[in-house]
Design goal:
Radius of gyration: 24 Å
Shape: elongated
Distance between the termini: 43 Å
Strand content: 15-25%
Number of helices: 12
Helix content: 25-40%
Length: 400
Amino acid sequence: MLTPLPQAGSIMPIINRIAEFHDEIVAWRKDFHRHPELLFEVHRTAARVAELLRSFGVDEVVTGIGRTGVVGVIKGRTSGSGRAIGLRADMDALPILETTGKPYASETRGVMHACGHDGHISMLLGAARYLAETRNFDGTAVVIFQPAEEGEAGARAMVEDGLMERFGINEVYGLHNFPGLSTGQFAVRTGGIMAAVDTVKIEIEGTGGHAARPHKTIDPVVVAAHVIVGLQTLVSRNVDPVQAAVFSATMIKAGTTDNVIPRTATITASIRTLDDDVRDLMEQRVCAFAKATAEAFGATAHITYARGYPVTVNTPDQTAFAAETAAEIVGNERVDRSVSPQLIAEDFAFMLKARPGAYILLGQGDTAGLHEDAYDFNDEIIPIGASYFVRLIERAMPVG
């Protein structure tokens, strides 16, 4: 759980020019919010992003990177540094029915921006507009608009499509809003800040039969119950207490009626870790325990273990730089440099595997949580996030 730092006053030293077109950025954000799109199917969103980037005078706008990703290239006043810094925003929404009742609520039933990606897009567009106007840096700013963060690894798709090499990116930075963290407060840490997430499906196969004759069956429901209860001990009795891991059984499916013991029962679970060795250990122990428990009852366990997003790992130098930049915007006392890691997952991890960089959290106050049907992005933090993106570029690649 994130612990908010003390408030330091309501006036924040954001970039004046960005504050001037704050209302325009909010209008873009509300438009994206009205028209949410899922995963890689962000066609309208991507087209609008590309249209806006071109209107800003961005030097190059490339679409179709990682299927539906958009990349904008902004050249600085000089290019002697030879450096290129990437800034990333995610574009996709979630399959959730919105209940905010806002006048700009989703017009696509059952789909909404419940994670604030509409705000992320808009903050980065605001930064891109400012950078294209001023070009007060020595090198290249690469603004990255990524699809499919919510489950299909759009970041990996863009990396595999040559994102880093094609645009010569040396470092990459990402930002995510965070409910519960004081408005305008930043939080970051070196090392793992978001967890690896894996999914396991365990199908227990026994022998079905009449509910009145359980002794004639090998009941997979009973076996599944023992497997679930036993797996709860994996973290407490296998993982070093100073390490973090979570095993959560999230689905169990078995049977079709009340008087029949089914032949199979299926467990689905989520496993989250912050260390690659712990990740390996959890996979080995989950599979071994499930198989051994099933065999003890005379049943069989068929296991599918799928690795998802890796740990999001911030590199030391870039994390320190991100924290210093954030402090320039909101004040040193409003930047937590050693925030507790979160066991939610983030596919920006794939970009950080390809290049050094940092992923930072930006507080949006006491609002509904991420992935909730009542969530809405806090437009007050738009100038803060946009200013942060701009200053990353200007500080990393100063003119002269």
